[in-house]
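Tokens in:
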């Protein structure tokens, strides 16, 4: 049973998301929060598997709340935003969010996303991925100093990180590197552990910030 906490300052969205998720036998909404501060408190208290987090809330916003939830709990954070050009997307991803969806997402896609992120995968809507890459380039986000940390990885792990940054699945990476999916899972786990990253989403950010991957490589 996946335990979900919903954080959104609008009652209508909270109620709608709760109704959709509670309709499935393997998902239960354990609580709701109307702002970031309440989301942090309830995440600590209720220990959900996943927090569905609105990015724009009064007081403590979704970015700060995401950072605190990721720091203080083991919950995954799936961020919801009204706009694919939201300026907070990049900051929330760096804060530890494992995925982003637009609030106009179809109900089946919402349920699939909750299961996917709770299961350890990252999820970015294509339009948000394009925005993220444009943001990295347009604002000069690259941090070459991070490239030194790549020395902690083996050559195969670097190859795996490069493939992760291009949005490849484990099966696609296995085909590209001509290894088994089990081997890919091991490489991914090693990459996250050695670089101190929470999940695949943060690995994408690291790959771009370190200069390992640049827009257009794909």
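Residues out:
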């Amino acid at each position: 049973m996946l335990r979900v906490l919903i954080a959104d300052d609008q009652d209508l969205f909270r109620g709608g998301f709760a109704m959709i998720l509670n309709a499935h036998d393997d998902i239960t909404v354990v609580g709701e929060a109307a702002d970031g501060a309440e989301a942090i408190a309830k995440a600590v208290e209720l220990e959900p598997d996943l927090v569905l987090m609105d990015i724009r809330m009064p007081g403590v916003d979704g970015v700060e709340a995401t950072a605190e939830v990721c720091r203080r709990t083991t919950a995954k954070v799936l961020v919801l935003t009204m706009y694919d050009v939201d300026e907070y997307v990049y900051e929330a991803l760096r804060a530890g969010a494992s995925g982003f969806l637009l609030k106009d997402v179809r109900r089946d896609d919402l349920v699939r996303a909750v299961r996917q992120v709770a299961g350890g995968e990252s999820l970015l809507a294509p339009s948000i991925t394009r925005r993220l890459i444009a943001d990295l380039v347009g604002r000069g986000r690259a941090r070459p100093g991070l490239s030194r940390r790549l020395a902690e990885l083996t050559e195969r792990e670097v190859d795996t990180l490069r493939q992760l940054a291009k949005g490849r699945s484990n099966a696609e990476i296995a085909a590209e590197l001509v290894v088994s999916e089990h081997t890919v899972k091991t490489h991914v786990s090693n990459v996250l552990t050695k670089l101190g990253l929470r999940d695949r989403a943060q690995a994408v950010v690291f790959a771009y910030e370190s200069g390992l991957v640049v827009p257009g490589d794909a």
